[in-house]
Specification:
Strand content: 15-25%
Helix content: 25-40%
Number of helices: 4
Radius of gyration: 18 Å
Length: 122
């Protein structure tokens, strides 16, 4: 007899939801809860070669926030034009923590769009 392949399991809703950005109804938006840590991450992740050359930028990131407020996935929505800056933005996004989004009385996972701004120090 010919060997048969096992059928591929269908993705769960949670996996499918993280696959790509899409709208999720919410009545309460997630709020950043660790501002000082994110500021430290911005400073630490800023590529020295770009900072020293006076190059800044603000890639716009899609960030998937789980029901516990942690970042589950990041995607670059609009590039800064510099791959190193886009990668640094993903690192900063992963350091973010949020209060969970809610739709009425339900906690819901959501995609949000956030610019990660790297500004050249004065």
């Amino acid at each position: 007899p010919e060997p048969t392949a096992e059928p591929t399991p269908e993705p769960t809703d949670q996996v499918a939801a993280t696959d790509r950005p899409r709208f999720t109804p919410m009545t309460v938006r997630p709020a950043l809860t660790n501002v000082s840590e994110v500021q430290q991450a911005l400073t630490g992740a800023y590529p020295a070669a770009l900072r020293d050359a006076g190059i800044g930028g603000a890639p716009i990131m899609w960030i998937y926030i789980g029901t516990d407020g942690t970042v589950q996935r990041t995607l670059v929505h609009e590039t800064s034009g510099y791959e190193a800056l886009d990668e640094a933005a993903a690192t900063v996004a992963e350091a973010m923590r949020f209060s969970p989004a809610q739709n009425r009385d339900q906690v819901v996972p959501v995609w949000v769009q956030i610019p990660i701004r790297f500004a050249v120090p004065n």
